[in-house]
Predict the structure.
Amino acid sequence: MIKNNSLRSNSLYIAKHFTLQQIVMLSKKGPRIREIYITPIAVTDPPLLNAAGLHAPYALRTVLELVTEDGISGISEIPGNADVDAALESSRDLLMGQDVFQLNTIRRLLIERFGTDSSADRGLAPWDQRKLVHIFSAVEVACMDIIGKVTHKPIVDLLGGKMRDAVPFSAYLFYKYAGAGGELGFGKDEQATGWAAARQESALDPEGIVAQAKAMCESFGFQSIKLKGGVFEPRQEVDAIIALHKAFGADVPLRIDPNALWTVDTAILYGKEMEPYLEYLEDPVRGQENMAIVRKALKTPLATNMCTTSFDEIPSSITLGSEDIILSDHHFWGGLRASMTLAGICSTFKRGLSMHSNSHLGISLAAMVHLGAALPSMDYALDTHYPWQSDEIITQGRFRFEDGAVQVPSEPGLGVELDRQALKKLHENYLACGLKKRDDEIEMQKVIPGWKFKSVRW
Ligand code: GKR
Ligand code: MG
């Protein structure tokens, strides 16, 4: 009797929420992938400096669109790299005809074809250069976008439901040369106003960094601040942190990220000096062992997106005690569900969890917001490069930040739709700019001939 009742209410629910076509399809099999579009794009990016050199005038991204037999489209965005695009391209035959609900099967098929990335494949750069994690992420997010549309649920609900209505982000400051990137390169759009004008200014000393922080926080309402370090000799970067503290006061948490360029001694010396000012110190040194030594010497928590970047590295991270906070990134941890698994591991081992970013557009931001909304706890505002980008490829236009936070989309799936005209234009940028993968060292050499990346500099 109970069984019959629940059967009847299930049928009523399905009749109310699904079209006839979807009911027929669901009663047979899940929605199957019929079309796959892989579109590399080049996004205007200002001349930002980091440990590996200089951002090119365009940041590369790849947009994946999967379309089901009944025309439901799911999208995702990952960092652009011609090798990852080629691997995605060669997974076409595997993905075609797959039921988007069967994410475990899809993952298994991809592993069978590509194997698994090793930790060493990540590389020494501040960003991750692995292949498979990016492919997992691209395919999973696009499938989940479709699953959300079919079930009329936002992705956050597929991750276990919303723990907050808006997701807080931190201001992400960069030392930079003057200019806006893209066609303007190091040039200037004299018509620009507000943050669009401020983001063109150079910032090469503590005063420039404070001015950048004020302009960014005023426009986006950010309530915590991260400085990308590893660019100048540490004294200058520590002075920038002290200047930020003076300008913003103790209520605005500060972080600095030298991307592992400091020696253990440098990190301990300047880490101690910055103890009164920092919320956390991100990747001061290279490798879990060195991080563990610095962590023992400082009261400030250490965060990482460089020394513990895969599930394989968790056991040694715990044994050594290499960091307090892991900066997850669904593009690098193999998707949104894997990032939820990471959240569970962090909570078990009393690690904090926050989020890392790279130059990105709104499809990635939407995915980050759904994930951020589902995380059981949020002790730190997440990273985003979004204010540095001006292009967009979603029909709703650029996301808005209120008091530094983004509202969690409530529409089904990611809650954003592809702007095909904008996608076409940014793909044309990609074809015209000739970049095939990120190489900040080469960009830096265009300004400082002979400049070389060093894995540890100071
Ligand atoms: O965009 O230059 C940059 C950053 O250095 C980025 O590539 C890093 O991956 O933001 C990142 C970080 O926190 O290390
Ligand atoms: Mg970092």
Notes: The radius of gyration is 22 Å. The longest strand covers residues 33-44. Residues 158-414 form a domain with the TIM Barrel fold (CATH 3.20.20.120). The chain has two domains: 11-152+422-433, 158-414.
